[in-house]
TrEMBL record:
GO terms for biological process: carbohydrate metabolic process. This is Glycosyl hydrolase family 13 catalytic domain-containing protein. It comes from marine metagenome. Residues 41-381 form the Glycosyl hydrolase family 13 catalytic domain. One of its GO terms (molecular function) is hydrolase activity, acting on glycosyl bonds.
């Protein structure tokens, strides 16, 4: 999945200056790097083409090569067996733009207040997506990307702003072109259930929060720390393991609608969150040596591995954000911009086209053991359909303690999880011989050893086993 690639306002108002009644006192970088201020829905962003420039007053995309190059990119990724999903923003356009729709008929295309002013949300003027003409504009653009660029699906930014009527129209139209089109988005505001009923997937915030704890308050911890948020328990862990399609807090009609994640581009990345939660760092720390900073403490390493086990053995669709598999960090890079937070960890680097956002492949070698752990778990998930296509009645759960859980799927795959920071737990395997595939120390899809009888799950760790006979 890419961040937005269709044309967007990537240059903002000059810092500490006014333009068209707006004063920029929030963005010293004067940039919008992530693409959430869209402009033209059918044009690829020429800033990413080989003839790009960031020189003021100069044009991007004069010869249209972005079209050719993006089509070639999609084709190349397909040759490697990878589907291409575009992050799209269809609920607003950039409030900076002299957008043609604003001059054709703003009363048709935009949401307006009682004074005939644009209604804005986050970073743009809201489109009237329930109007037939806007629906036509949106759907034709999406169909264009499917037929001309052959993209495989879409991630809809802030899709909770869409009505069920419009969301239903979108999925029906796109499935008429490709019945297997991938459709999911941000159905926040408790609308995940509603979107699932019409066939949409969505980011499963419950999956993240049951494991990590509160999104912003790192004192409120989740299962990975041997704790729960208020009102949660082992039952909530069971629910997310089963794709949040089970129990009193069921969200999804199908486990395929649950996009399970530990981090995305928004907010602090997972391992920076762990650096705060474990007390290794504070949010005001200045990081002078990035490679020393990302070196994993035993505690953070173990939490990362347990989180990876849960992510890659749960029903649903696992999402791995860039660099998550090596515990990457987001440090505000040196810059000429007047940023007073240089050197701190960044929770929202949307405006930085620099090392803050760029993938640092050197980090991958620093934490290669964690990369190998992820790689092994991915291989196990691919090899065992029970971890991807199980139904509710395929599971047999065993509560081992308040913060430890075991479960068997179809009497052929066993997973044990211990969130306790203090105590190991022991249990007896079901009858027969079992091949250990993953434990606290290593992952081997071909098997680490054969086990039977009593086993012990160390603190802050997981185990995955496959029955031999």
């Amino acid at each position: 999945q890419f961040l937005p690639l269709w044309d967007f306002a990537n240059v903002e108002i000059p810092y500490k200056q006014e333009a068209d009644g707006m004063y920029n006192d929030w963005n010293p970088y004067e940039r919008n790097h992530w693409g959430y201020m869209p402009t033209f829905f059918m044009a690829p962003e020429s800033y990413y083409a080989s003839d790009w420039t960031d020189e003021r007053g100069q044009w991007n995309g004069k010869d249209g090569r972005a079209v050719k190059e993006m089509k070639e990119m999609v084709k190349s990724l397909h040759k490697e067996g990878m589907a291409v999903i575009l992050d799209v923003v269809i609920n607003h356009v950039s409030n900076y733009d002299w957008h043609p729709l604003k001059y054709i008929d703003r009363s048709v295309y935009f949401k307006l207040d009682e004074n005939d002013n644009y209604i804005s949300q986050c970073c743009g003027n809201l489109l009237e997506t329930d109007h037939e003409k806007v629906q036509q504009y949106v759907i034709e653009s999406l169909k264009y990307w499917m037929t001309e660029y052959h993209v495989d699906g879409f991630r809809f930014d802030q899709c909770f702003l869409l009505s069920s009527k419009t969301a239903t129209l979108i999925i029906n139209e796109l499935k008429s072109i490709n019945p297997d089109v991938i459709i999911y988005g941000e159905a926040w505001s408790d609308r995940e259930v509603e979107f699932s009923k019409i066939g949409w997937g969505s980011f499963n915030g419950k999956f993240r929060d049951v494991l990590r704890g509160d999104l912003h308050n790192t004192d409120i911890k989740g299962f990975l720390f041997g704790q729960y948020r208020n009102g949660e328990s082992l039952e909530d862990l069971k629910t997310i393991i089963m794709g949040s399609s089970y129990g009193k807090k069921k969200i999804y009609q199908s486990t395929s609608h649950s996009i399970n994640f530990l981090e995305v581009h928004d907010d602090y990345c997972f391992s920076d969150y762990l650096r705060f939660s474990t007390g290794k760092n504070s949010k005001d720390d200045i990081i002078n040596d990035q490679m020393e900073h990302i070196a994993l403490t035993p505690e953070i390493f173990n939490i990362n591995k347990l989180a990876a086990v849960i992510l890659l053995t749960s029903q649903g669709v696992p999402l791995i954000h860039q660099g998550q598999e090596w515990a990457h960090t987001q440090i505000i890079a040196e810059t000429d911009a007047p940023d007073t937070d240089i050197g701190k960890m960044d929770r929202n680097p949307y405006n930085k086209d620099n090392e803050t956002n760029w993938v640092n492949w050197v980090e991958k070698e620093q934490n290669s053991e964690l990369v190998d752990y992820y790689r092994g778990l991915i291989a196990i998930r691919k090899a065992l359909p029970e971890l991807r296509h199980a139904r509710t009645n395929d599971f047999k759960f065993q509560g081992l303690s308040e913060t430890a859980l075991g479960y068997i799927i179809r009497n052929s795959v066993a997973v044990y999880l211990n969130g306790s920071k203090a105590e190991p737990v022991s249990t007896e395997l079901p009858e027969g011989e079992w091949k250990l595939l993953a434990n606290k120390e290593q992952v081997n899809p071909d098997g680490i050893q054969t086990m039977s009888g009593m086993i012990t799950i160390p603190r802050t760790s997981g185990m995955v086993l496959q029955k031999i006979n």
